[in-house]
Amino acid sequence: MKRVVVGAHYGLRDWLAQRVTAVVMAVYSVILVVLLLSGGPIGYAEWKALFAKGWMRVATLLFAVSVAWHMWVGVRDILMDYVRPDGARLTLQVLTLLTIAAYLGWTIQILWR
Amino acid sequence: MTNAAIKKARPKYLSLAALLFEIRLPLPGWVSILHRVSGAVLFLAMVWLLFLLDRSLSSEAGFESVKRYTSIPIVKAALLLMIWCYCHHFCAGIRFLFLDVHKGVDKETARVTSIVVIVAGLVLTALFGVRLL
Question: Helical H runs in B59-72?
Fold first, then answer.
């Protein structure tokens, strides 16, 4: 993309990502709620078995990636709105990215243990 | 326009007191700011939620310890807050998706859908709170 210093539409990808990830999370949420509420009481065996299924792990990973991406766009928007000093904003944005990366890494570790 | 209106001090700087007591946010505004607040809370609380997921899937003993831990009233309240954050964020987000495609943009509909979102968030929280906690 040819970039000019003052231009428009650079936010389109983030805007679109925010919506696509939202739809992925919504679909996963509904499926999870149906799975959790349709059966009987859930003990360790049922809980473990649910996340042992291959498709459930992949679906949860898709969900986690969507959450990570969605969080990045959302938190960055909040920081851009409220944190005015450039240094502080940049620092917080870097911390946010590192935190989100850590969340994602941890989730993968939990799923494929 | 009356003289009084012309003489109003401009520009008007917003104090915290003005934000809290003088300016009354319309309902769609409440949905919006609560969407932002709930999202921020979920981001910050994710470390705790992942800790709970990690423990609960680690072993039988871990699962039982999470069960005991989440039966403590204050922990249960915190978890209920997380459920509300998720439910409100979910409902408000769907409303925003409809606004994206220009559905429900007019004032009256926007007000009605705002009430629906706020009520739905609370009802779903109560429902899941009763079923899951």
Answer: 60-69
